[in-house]
Amino acid sequence: MMTYPMLFKVTAEAASGIQTTWSTQSMHDSQKAVMAIPPEFSGPGGGFSPEDLYAMALANCFVATFKVFAEKSRLSFSQIKVHTTLSVDRNEKGQPWMAKAGLNIEISGVAQKEIAQRLLEKTSQGCMILNSVLTEKSFEFKVLA
User: Is 37 helix (H, G, I), strand (E, B) or coil?
Assistant: First the structure.
């Protein structure tokens, strides 16, 4: 049984300077991820950027939600791939923001294509992170036997 509210904690530790990497980790994992300001923002790259993590959160929330829906519907599949393209732009006030995210989802090894298509649509509406952001989202689905 799930109890709400749920709390998730992360830590980020950094030294000064935009050319230095830093580390971040979640409460669920002792491994630290290397973070860096991307070259697009005059950083060195060489680690995940906040923009990478944002796009990864959208993609992986889709995967996790689909897996739950598929399990509950007894839909078997071989693999799900989500390719996400994130567009950073400026809003009407000139502030940078995550303007658009295009998610291209491919599911392979599916015998029940109609059920898979229905669950893909349901996932696009039921993923909590996708529902929590202002970013414009578009979806393209491909279901393969």
Answer: coil
| Dist. CA 50–CA 96, nearest whole Å | 13
Task: Collect contacts of 91-98 with beta carbons under 8 A, ≥24 apart.
Answer: 97/134, 97/135, 98/51, 98/54, 98/133, 98/134, 98/135
Q: What are the pLDDT digits (tens) for 5-27?
A: 999 999 999 999 999 999 999 99
Tokens linked to 23: 């580390």
Q: Which helix (H) or strand (E) holds 106?
A: strand 96-108
Rounded CA separation 70/118 (Å): 10
Adjacency order of strands within the sheet including 136-143: 79-90, 96-108, 136-143
Mean pLDDT per 10-residue interval, the chain, length 145 residues:
93 97 95 97 96 98 98 98 98 97 98 97 97 98 96
Predicted TM-score (pTM) of the model is 0.94
